[in-house]
Amino acid sequence: MVRFKNDDSAYVGRYLAVVADGMGGHAGGNVASASTVLDLVHLDSSVHEDEPLTVLADEIQAANSLLSELVTTSPQLSGMGTTVTALLLHEQRLALAHIGDSRAYRLKDGRFEQISIDHTFVQRLIDEGRLQPEEAEVHPHKNVLMRVLGDVDASPELDLATFDVEPGERWLLCSDGLTAVLRDSDIEGVLRSTSDLQECVDTLVELTLAGGSPDNVTVAVIEIDEDPDAGSAPATAPLSEVSSRDNAYRPTAAVAAAPPVTEDEPGSRAEDPAAQDDADDAESERERAQLIRQDLASRPHVLVGAASLATETGEIPIVTKRSAERRAARMLTHKAESEQQAEQPTGDSPRTGWKRWLLPAFLTVVALLLAVVVWLGYTWTQTRYYVGSYDNRVAIYNGVSQTVGPIQLSHVTDVSDIPVDSLSEYHRNRVEDTLPARDLEHAGEIVSELRDTAKAVLCPPVDNGSATAAPSPGATAAPKAEQNSACGGEQ
Predict the structure, then answer these.
(1) What is the pTM assigned to this prediction?
(2) Strands 8-13 and 16-21, how do they pair?
């Protein structure tokens, strides 16, 4: 039997252009390309939360994760994959993300060059100097891809770059169906000699088909023009939606299927991975496709290939199901916000006002709780007492013997006349390390005990037997007098 199946998908809008080529010969090539393209179209905007190149790379990685999820739910899709070459315009910069063997060319300042690098086995041999470029065209493994999106690699490596754009330059994105037949010089000749973008695309596709293309052919041509409202800054608008006078970022795309491919196994015209089971499922898929069309209708664009088939007819149900789920949430959100803005044209919506006050209110509550905890903690410390040293005297402190930053959590309430040096080494160390007390009375008792200890050190028991001993030569009466004074005795 003969099967007509397009594994290519492409989208060109105001700010985004992407071409994806599903892996031919693998189950679900059309699913992979359509899913990836439809997953990226929401980037067709002039506003992004991060750098455009970062956003583009992150979204392509997210699309790769979606392919893995599709394989998990539908094992018959195992082995599917797709190339991706995408451009995202932001102000005067163009972000490029690329993986696989679809290509990006640029014609700028009279110079035509291939910007992307094929991620193929033969290109690696060329880069290593083991193969000449002309030999690659006839190499038996020229179509072997080294890097693609799919269920093989959870985080495939992308080629990423950013370019300054100028009015007049052209970019061409294409699947390998074009470059398998036409040489770069042929592509350059058409791109230089044809002023009308649609005519340029049509000519390239017709030349490819006339040359006997063995694969699907998808071509997108983009031209940068001056924005009449912003001086020389590039802007975007599809050619099919506005006049030439208003064009800024003028994209157009065309797709054509290669001649019928003969299959060894008989089959039907539509060998999609997830066929419609019954009439109810078919109706559900049509509804999902309609939802996707409504979302796409909100922006001017050109959509072709498997992604267009899924959107227009729902004939790739697994793609329309996942895409519809994401777009339904987005459209409902946008609708709700629009209705709230219409009802409150001069003020914030309740949801926006609630979010605006949520963080300040939360921080205020946290600050109050922290202040209460600090106050209660400090109040508790002022009910505590301990005995320590102050200016080499035994002293009573109110509080605890800690500090919080520059804040001392205690203060001296009473300083005794007991020198710390008069204590035994054991008691001296205890005082220096502080002695905790239950209350002020208990602290006074500790000081009294230390006073007795100091007297015991300074006033050892008197030896009456030695009192009548003759004094040593040179001795004086002063030390005895000082000792008697310290101990409270008579001179």
Answers:
(1) 0.59
(2) antiparallel
